[in-house]
Amino acid sequence: MGWLWWVGGALALGVLEMISLDLVLIMFAGGALAGAVAAGLGAPVLVQVVVAAVTAAVLLFTLRPWLLGHLRRRVPLQETNVHALVGRDAVTVASVDGVTGRVKLAGEVWSARTADGSTLAPGTSVVVARIDGATAVVGPAPASAGDAAVRGPLTA
């Protein structure tokens, strides 16, 4: 009857894995299933726990890295939240220096500072180098060939 507890634990860990998607809890679920097999064979509780722990560790350190590598080769990593803002264009709405400033980034006004400590005037196009807490660290946007054509060859 003890094997049912192990199977119940494995099912619960499987459901939690569907929420987390880390491929960690499913490895623990595999260990719980191994514990269920040990319990079904009549092993003492201590042996069941050891079998579950060893199986989970083996799965965690051998199968999980292989699965993650295979998954990353098939599906490119999609950055989300603030990590997706790095490299995006923004426009300064207030003077930005090495300490303080404001930029309009992705439709929102963010606190900002320059990466090199320089001062940028309002209306300057910038690129987000990184997000530091709630502050966008920015630098001047590189001049494109289209900008040089509009300004002319002498001002490029």
TrEMBL record:
Tell me which UniProt keywords the record has, alphabetically.
Hydrolase, Membrane, Protease, Transmembrane, Transmembrane helix
Q: What is its main location?
A: membrane
Q: Which residues form the NfeD-like C-terminal domain?
A: 83-140
Please list the GO terms describing molecular function: peptidase activity
Q: Report the transmembrane regions from the record.
A: 44-63
Q: Where does it localize?
A: Membrane
**How does the entry describe its membrane topology?**
Multi-pass membrane protein
Q: Which InterPro entries match?
A: Membrane_assoc_protease, NA-bd_OB-fold, NfeD-like_C
Q: Name one GO biological process term.
A: proteolysis
One Gene Ontology term, aspect cellular component: plasma membrane
Q: Name one Pfam family in it.
A: NfeD
Protein name (database record): Membrane protein
| Species this protein is from | Cellulomonas oligotrophica
